[in-house]
């Protein structure tokens, strides 16, 4: 593992190694142990979009590991004035030991990885959000004991989260069922690859997708950068693509609910279901810290 651009680049062993390391690091912290695995290492964090969880968890994660994180708002960088990514990559490679970037195009990450000489971590693109799904898998395993054979159901837009749930869920050995409107389907190639496992289904019917699910997940109807489409999307998603009591009645009795956050109550999830599963959802948010520390140790550690 050299970078974390998408979970699709990982082997199953690498995925489980990261999850085991995330659990171990979490246990250490709970005992008050902060081993300085990344003493004197620096992480550049480039953001071209907003963030609460990703920014704070990476920054605190680096601090706990004995290193330093630099918040770099792309608009404040020369990048925002047109300096090429390939030059930014080569410059930052001389200063920092790794880059985490949140941006629009996956190809921008790939360019950073190609021209830089340091590990690149995907902090969300329009295509995938691998760090979030790592944290989700860690959370599901904590609650359910294992991942293999469990059914994960995603209801909503075929966006970066949908793509990453397919990548991560299938890699972990889960059954993955998605319900997305035909106008907003997940990535065709990701779906085609998942379909070859016989553990993937894609429907427009949330109730069918949720049948006997162990975990039910969703995400916002309009992602960052899609705000202009919010009204158009609302008309397609409203009343159908939502985690509510009817959906939960289809899932297993002990089904978990996760949400990457931020959540929009009464849109993709009802306030009632959200609050009934708030412990799981905020454990999931906490696990961003532990899961990403595992990624950082693996990629930036000696
Ligand atoms: N889930 C997530 O990535 O949250 P932020 O946008 O707050 O980083
Ligand atoms: N799909 C959402 C996820 C936010 C964490 C977005 O890209 O805005």
Automatic annotation (TrEMBL):
**Reactions mediated catalytically:** carbamoyl phosphate + L-ornithine = L-citrulline + phosphate + H(+)
Listed Pfam families: OTCace, OTCace_N
Q: Which UniProt keywords apply?
A: Cytoplasm, Transferase
**UniProt superkingdom:** Bacteria
Q: Which GO terms describe its cellular component?
A: cytoplasm
* Positions with a binding annotation for L-ornithine: 160, 219, 223-224
User: Does the keyword section mention DNA-binding?
Assistant: no
Q: Aspartate/ornithine carbamoyltransferase carbamoyl-P binding domain: from which residue to which, for each copy?
A: 2-142
According to UniProt, the name of this protein is: Ornithine carbamoyltransferase
State the species of origin: Longicatena caecimuris
Q: What is the lineage of its organism?
A: Bacteria, Bacillati, Bacillota, Erysipelotrichia, Erysipelotrichales
């Amino acid at each position: 593992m050299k970078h974390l651009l998408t979970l699709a680049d990982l082997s199953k062993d690498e995925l489980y190694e990261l999850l085991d390391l995330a659990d171990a690091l979490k246990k250490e912290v709970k005992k008050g142990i902060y081993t300085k695995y990344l003493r004197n290492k620096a992480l550049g964090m480039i953001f071209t979009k907003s963030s609460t969880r990703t920014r704070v968890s990476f920054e605190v994660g680096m601090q706990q590991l004995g290193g330093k994180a630099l918040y770099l708002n792309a608009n404040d960088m020369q990048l925002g004035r047109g300096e090429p990514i390939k030059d930014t990559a080569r410059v930052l490679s001389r200063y920092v030991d790794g880059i985490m970037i949140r941006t629009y195009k996956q190809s921008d990450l790939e360019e950073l990885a190609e021209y830089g000489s340091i590990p690149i971590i995907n902090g969300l693109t329009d295509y995938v959000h691998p760090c979030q799904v790592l944290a989700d898998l860690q959370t599901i395993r904590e609650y359910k004991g294992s991942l293999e054979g469990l059914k994960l159901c995603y209801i909503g837009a075929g966006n970066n989260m949908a793509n990453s749930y397919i990548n991560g869920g299938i890699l972990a050995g889960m059954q993955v069922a998605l319900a997305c409107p035909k106008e907003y389907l997940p990535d065709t190639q990701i779906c085609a690859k998942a379909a070859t496992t016989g553990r993937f289904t894609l429907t427009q019917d949330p109730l069918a997708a949720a049948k006997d699910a162990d975990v039910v997940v969703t995400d916002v109807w309009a992602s960052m950068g899609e705000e202009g489409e919010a009204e158009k999307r609302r008309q397609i998603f409203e009343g159908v693509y939502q985690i509510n009591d009817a959906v939960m009645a289809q899932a297993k009795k002990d089904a978990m609910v996760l949400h990457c956050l931020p959540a929009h109550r009464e849109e993709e999830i009802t306030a009632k279901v959200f609050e009934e599963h708030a412990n799981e959802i905020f454990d999931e948010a906490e696990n961003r810290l532990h899961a990403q520390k595992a990624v950082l140790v693996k990629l930036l550690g000696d």
